[in-house]
Amino acid sequence: MKLDIRTKIIITLLIATCASLNTNVTVEIGMMIFIGGLQLMSGKKVFSPVLVILYAVFAITQYAIFPVVPGWVSMLLSMFVVNIRSFFPVVMCIVLIYRTTRISEVIATFTNMKVPRGIIITIAIGIRYIPALAVEMRAIWEAMSVRNVAEGIKNPFKRVAVNMECYIVPLFISSIKTADELSAAAMTRGIENPAPPTCRSYRKMSPGDFGLIAVILLFTAGNAYARYKGVLL
Amino acid sequence: MILMKNVSFKYEGSENYSLKDINLTLEKGECLLVTGPSGGGKSTLTKLINGLIPAYFEGELKGEIYIDGINISDIPMYELSGKVASVFQNPKTQFFNIDAEDEMAFALENQGVDERIITERLERAADELGIKKLMTKNIFEMSGGEKQIIAFAGAYVSDAEVIVLDEPSANLDREHMEIIRDIMKKLMNQNKMIIIAEHRLAYLRNVATRACYMKNGQILENFTAEEFYGMSENKRCEMGLRELSAVTANNNFETEGKEKTDISVKNMKLKYEAFNGKELNLSFNYGEVIGIVGHNGLGKSTFIRTLCGIIREKKGEICISGRRVSCKKRKKKCGMVMQDVNYQLFSDSVALECKLGNGQVSDKEIYDILEELSLLDKKDVHPMSLSGGEKQRLAIATMLAGGKKIMMLDEPTSGLDYENMMRISRLLKKVAEKGTLCLVVTHDTEFIREACSRIITI
Lengths: 233, 458
Description:
By secondary structure, chain A is mostly helical. Chain A is built from 9 helices and no strands.
């Protein structure tokens, strides 16, 4: 299945709206299954089992562990667990976008929509930078793992702070360097050309795109109505 | 034709000129090799021709540069990009797109070239360069060599008159260097002008038609290809240049370990697809400098990361002094200098960097190590303000301060000139003499010849 970039963005926004309105875990699991299904239909490598497992861990923590631990522990953790868990369908949508969208497709589609060039380049660089950032984060984690940077520090909060600082400093520096080199390379390929670029990857939205948006729109409307009437609370 | 007339350039905020009074011409179908020690102005020269100076890097520019009679300061950068294509040293950060085909078409799309023409050119390039298999690949699934081939293919497709190459072979094995050399020959047959800034010179024999030697921002000497590749060994060493003829890495090397074994790898399989389930049985001893060689993308870096304990082995065991050692313990015993050393420097000063994670080590011991690695005068300097070579030495210093007896280095001489390559080579031999095992992943046959006691082919 090949969805249009606009469809994927609209789905993400609608799912984010649903996630903020919804308080029913069954509906939330339904959203996870639906987006997971979309991921699977978009390709084997698009589906993210890690996210599904993490979601299951959060759900089990809330419904199986919190009832049996002391009240203060569940009080302390429930805000974090519930809020993060309810955001998972949106993260699944973001994964769907970045694993199925070619940068040329973003540029072509938004250029056709007459979106200003500066905004298009910013979005395109953002999508390009996600996997590059993941590579950099892994490299820094590897470098830290062979050097116990927090050795000798007993205070656990200080240990976390030292680890965080050591992680962020090289990440920040490598991000600047990567962005700098990417920008220079893009300039030598004429990215600043004000003339309309060739949109090889532009495709019109298909009836399937419109159908999918309609279904999720109805679902969102249903969610809003239920919230308004207090049906699913 | 390219014409540079009395060109001088000073970067913004710098007191000295990076280029001084450069005059050069380049005719169609010529390939000019620009070489010389690091910091001599080679990269600055390439940035002037592709327009990054002054469009991206600001500063004071004097003189004039013409391409086919057009003064390039009279046209905007995006117009110049249609005339000049560039390939940079780092394949990781020169791709704007994630898919190979999109990247190759990117420059043409920005120029608004008709879709049919782009498709035709892509198909022709895929045929002529034999890269059909790569066209649908994601750049994050490619080896460094494959990425660089796609960067060259992008320049090939762009149909630009001038191709500017800034150390394109820095991370490549011999096989990929030969592929890019063949692409350059094809470009020259199409009457393109090529300017290449390089330290590795041997692979450009029979490609470069002229050479110029740059030092301290000036062109000190111009050569024809015959003069350049025919120069004496003494003159080459005096000029601080890399080998002019291909060096074979595996001649006269011991390929077997000695009887005594400090570290052994038994029936080890790596978690790496390209490794094809091969089992490794190897032995190493303290005091050795061993080159780990093999083609791009075959798992050399994965191998040293597994030895270090960063990645768990799929099967088999790693023993130190006869005892099996877990990943966790290996991390404590091994250190690694990564290809991009910036990832592994975390502190505010050189001395604190050595202290970090090595709480037991005294200040005196740190100063002794820094003195040995010629870093003592920089002890209060921020690690990120050091040069590339100094950062590498600092990473080695942190391992010495941590008492690590096994060091892994991933492509430590990538992009280094002769002098800096020799410096690393001498340093590793010195460290090994004191009982440290150095395992070095490298494609640099000159370095292997200078530093390694044996090689292991992955």
